[in-house]
Known about the structure:
Layout: E1 5-12, E2 20-27, E3 34-37, H1 38-43, E4 50-56, E5 62-74, E6 77-86, E7 93-94, H2 96-102, E8 104-107, E9 112-115
Parallel strand pairs: 2-7, 3-6
Antiparallel strand pairs: 1-2, 1-5, 4-5, 5-6, 8-9
Amino acid sequence: MGAFRLDCEVANIRQDAPSVAIKDVLVDTGSEYSWFPADLLSQAGVSVRKKALPFVMPNGQEITRDIGYALIRCGGFETVDEVILGREGDLVLMGARTLEGFAAVVDPQRKQLVAAGPLPAAFGRQTPDETT
Length: 132
């Protein structure tokens, strides 16, 4: 799959504060978390909720980064997710957790996000043939 980038908006999940635009976000299905610059997240009112969590880079180097909670909007999709407060030199990317929250998948031909379709659900007291 070829890499592609999208423009997103990020906002604080607790306030009706204005969102902050984040341009050229790399869509990376191989990354678990989304990484956004800490200064832009701060402007959106996103604060540190988990401090200095360890991460392993592809080269094996271990680093620590803080995590915050954010409302993320992109291409008609919206979700709340934990996001990494990136530092200078970190990639700006959208990870798999955000894509799952969007209920979206990557269309590699058109290089865009598309709705994933019906979401799987567990059956409770209903039988599988019931539709309501």
